[in-house]
Amino acid sequence: MACSTCERVIPDHLSVCPYCGRPQDPITQNKRTLTVFAVLTALLAAAFVLQALVGSN
Ligand SMILES: [Zn+2]
Q1: The pLDDT of residue 34
Q2: Ligand 1 centre from 18 Cα, in Å?
Q3: What is the residue extent of each domain of the chain?
């Protein structure tokens, strides 16, 4: 990932940037994961509804 302060690329597992020493905010990554999770959940829900509609015929 890129440091949020100096924008240098640093390993994802580092919680502090080795170049500028600024702590990295893990919330940004969590938000991305949550977004992916929300999309997957919505797709699953849509598939479930479609299946129920087809099954009712
Ligand atoms: Zn930095």
Answers
A1: 85
A2: 7
A3: 25-57
